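Reply to dn_fold:

You asked what the input looked like. This is it:
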Amino acid sequence: MAGRERLKHTRGIPRTSIAGLPADLRDLPERDRQQRGRTTRERALAWSQCRWLMSHHIISVGISVAGPGFAFSRVPPSTAVVMACTAGSGVALTADGFREVTPGSVYCMPAGTRQAYAARTTPWRVTWICYLESDQRPSAVPGPPAAHRGDAKGLETLVLALLGEVHGAADPAMLGHYAALVDLHARRLATAVGRDPLRAVWAAVEADLARPWRLGDLARLAGMGVEALRLASLASTRHSPMQHLTHLRMHRAALDLAGGDALVGAIALRVGYDNAFAFSTAFKRCLGMAPAVYRGHRRGHIAVG
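and this is what came back:
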């Protein structure tokens, strides 16, 4: 979705739907504004410190314990953010106006739309994942900005484990798996029930990637016609249903290649390819290199998708 189209999601949003909204957000300045506050403490990790993150297009992760004055307004960024609250409370700009973000809440901010949030009751403890988005792959945060209930504590636990491993043993295999788990959990929170009408479809597909899925199978699973499925898929993933199916298969194959020693032919069967050559061709088309080359570079910065 083009940036101009994304901006439509925030037009006409009421700016004072929560009493006591911080002035910095009430005015919604037409420029970036970032205030951390003097007492805010953060633990952050950039992709340059853990290059496995960029395998999932994550540029940074972190946990912020926000103090008074913590407020952000971005106009509009090229990054998407998933933020999960485990203590305190804050306010965040959604497509329905400003909403409270309390423990157990998840705030999802797609790229190309204004992102605005601030601490209200401090310390406001939030875990965040920042994605670099591109029109060439499915969005990590589909749909307009929204706040909903989700497993915020689970995301915090995974990020803490990743931070601990980076600053501890720094085992490459552990780092790769932690990065993958952080990505999978964040994306699940971003596509929670009520946001993506095809979430159940893609969950069923991911549970059985070896099945020879056809467009009609996906449409029946979604309970909609083929054209309605195509439009819903384009809206939530930016890809047609079959293109997204291929993306899911290549994503799983890349994780298997990076995290184990299974033969390429065995991995091909797991993700729905009877022919190892056809699988290798599809993998190279999606990732720009053959499976064996990808495996050889699994300790480096390799982008998936």
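The longest strand covers residues 115-132.
Hope that clears it up.
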